[in-house]
Amino acid sequence: MKLQSEKQLVKLQKKLATDRNKHKKQIMICCGPGCLANGAQKIVDKFHSHLEKKKITGFTIEAVKETGCHGFCEQGPLVVIEPEGLFYTKVKPKHVEEIIERSVAKDDVVEKLLYKGNGKSIEKYKDIPFYAHQQRIALDNLGKIDQNKIEDYLAGSGYQAMAKVIFSMKPEEVIDEVTRSGLRKSDRSHVV
Q: Are strands 120-122 and 115-117 parallel, antiparallel or unpaired?
């Protein structure tokens, strides 16, 4: 589909967001380099095969998202169940069936897979000290979208700035915006 306007982009984003939210829960599997090195792809494959076989009402393999790195490689492979933010660490393929049956089909927690900090188990992603004080700006969608599906990025309002540049700004306005942002110095004295 070729977009002709910002309106078309917004309409597409709304449709994709609606499609994305048809699952009441999402299974986010970190597929960053650290987690992949520790077997994350086997976990993804196990989730897919088990969900296809089990036929849990309202769940298909589209509920499984292969996300980018969550930044906490030492605890990987990581699995997060959304919207609860339930955070599982050091997940192995043998844990997948239990996660599906307890945390996806029901609202139960697999205690042994929770992050352990200061002698206690922590259930929620946001409560883990490593993440609790982070304010993500450029990486706000980290761990929330499937890195292999452009539709996930679009559903989260991706490409809004680019659409504005392409459809409603003049070249001089774009240059002024970049200059004002401070992202690039306008001083070219260092260029040879």
A: antiparallel
The single-letter DSSP state of residue 12 is H
Token pair for 166:
């392409």
Report yes or no: 12 and 3 within 8 Å, Cβ to Cβ: yes
CA–CA distance, 176 with 24 (Å, rounded to integer):
43
The predicted-structure confidence for 42-92, as pLDDT tens digits, reads as follows: 999 999 998 888 776 666 667 888 998 888 999 999 999 988 889 999 999
Task: Tell me the pLDDT tens digit for each residue of 8-28.
Answer: 888 888 887 777 666 678 899
Phi/psi at 187 (nearest 5 deg)? -75, 115
Q: Which amino acid is at 94?
A: K
Q: Rounded CA gap, 28 and 78, in Å? A: 8
Q: What are the contacts of 147-154 at 24+ separation with CB within 8 A?
A: 147/31, 147/66, 147/67, 147/68, 148/66, 151/16, 151/19, 151/20, 152/16, 152/20, 152/65, 154/9, 154/12, 154/13, 154/16
